[in-house]
Design a protein that fits this description.
Blueprint lengths: L2 E2 L9 E4 L6 E11 L2 E6 L2 E6 L15 E6 L10 E8 L2 E4 L3 H13 L10 E4 L11 E5 L2 E11 L2 E2 L2 E4 L5 H15 L3 E8 L7 E3 L5 H12 L3 E9 L3 E8 L1 E2 L1
Parallel strand pairs: 11-14, 13-15, 14-16, 15-18
Antiparallel strand pairs: 1-18, 2-17, 3-4, 3-6, 4-5, 6-7, 7-8, 9-10, 10-11, 12-13, 16-17
Helix pairs in contact: 2-3
Length: about 250
Amino acid sequence: MSRMTMKTGIAPRIALTMGSSEDLTFGRFLDRQRKFLVTAKVNDKIKTAFLSHTGRLPSLLHPGASLLLRKRSSREKSRLSLEVLAVRQRGTWVCIKSQLANQLVERAVLSGALNDLPSDLVFRREPKLPGGGRADFALEASDTMRILIEVKSCCEKDGDDVIFPDTVTERGTRQVHALGRIARNGIDVRVCFVAMRSDAAGIRLAKEIDRSFVEAIELAQKQGVKLLGLRVKVTARRISLLGPIPVVF
């Protein structure tokens, strides 16, 4: 097993609020109806809530697990009034709203908190990749792509490390192969794995779950793709970026 930590700095502390005190509430997980729907008990009532995370989350979503939920505003145009933000496991809040990982990394890039990134490049969301698909972020100069950043949210824990993926991801494998080809052509490509909990020592790429994905990552590294592991701290009010942790094979 090899461990690697990409040398980068996180300063100052990057944080997001989970919501206002009026919008946040707690509940208990009952079951997962479909990929994006869960049933929860909230204030002694049975509610259906939206869950954005597409992974299985088998060790986190079990009957009785404590949930942090946010009341959704009418502007969000959803028939569901609640969204699941986090689940509590052995005293630690784990954020399961994947988009918050992207928002933290975006804020870190734009604020200059990722110290090794040039400050004179133009930031763009969801750039198109040659051959199809998209990455999360690009940094450009004179309309030329210089740096690509893809963010992966990691929640499930195995031993001291969080794992990724927690289910087979054919789309993720195709994307990693595309990123490797782009890196081979001289563009700075980075895959950023974000541990969405504070109790992770590292991020382990789980070959026993998806061998194809991990082998694609190994090949992409040889083609020049850089791997970065980050860890966050989650409370019932805030999620904050703590700093780098190792990526483990």
